[in-house]
Every structure is written in C-alpha cells, then in structure tokens.
Amino acid sequence: MGDCKRFSSAKQAAYYAGLVPRVDISGDTVRYGRIINRGCHSIRRVIVQAAWSLVRCQHGGKVKEFYQRLYLKKGAKKIDHRYFT
C-alpha cells in the first residue's frame, strides 16, 4: 500500500483496496451491489480477516456490535466495507 498519506480520504483508500460497492445507475434508479472485483486483493484479504477477528473476539467492541445489528438485517456480507471506511 505504501505511504497512506497519498490518499486524501478514507474513500480513496477504500477504492484502492476494492472495498466499495458496485453502483448501477439507470435514470432515477441507483442500485448498490457487491463490492467491486478491482483493487488490491491482498489488502482486501487482510482487512476482511481483521474484521472477522474482531467479530469473533470476546472484546470486539463497536465492530462486533455493528456486525450483530447488520447480520440481523442484511447478513454477514457488509461488515468488511464498514470496518475499512
């Protein structure tokens, strides 16, 4: 990843890692899909594993609480994007 200062925002770093949702826009309709399949796969893999470690940890804190709320609503697929940004 190099120097983190090259990213002016967390959003740019998320794009670099490929942790942003796919967006389909048609007229007035905007649909958000799965995370994009671009970006640095090794960084994404490390971030996802770190997020799962926090979820499974006894002292997961806010990440674990967020996961539990999100899992009840939408399932497990969105925890890594929220953790990174």
Automatic annotation (TrEMBL):
Coiled coil stretches, renumbered: none
GO molecular function terms listed in the Swiss-Prot or TrEMBL record: DNA binding; transposase activity
Entries under InterPro entries matching the protein: Transpos_IS110, Transposase_20
Domain Transposase IS116/IS110/IS902 C-terminal: 1-68
GO BP term, example: DNA transposition
PANTHER family, alphabetized: PUTATIVE TRANSPOSASE FOR IS117-RELATED, TRANSPOSASE FOR INSERTION SEQUENCE ELEMENT IS1111A
Record protein name field: Transposase, IS116/IS110/IS902 family
Biological source species: Leptospira interrogans serovar Australis str. 200703203
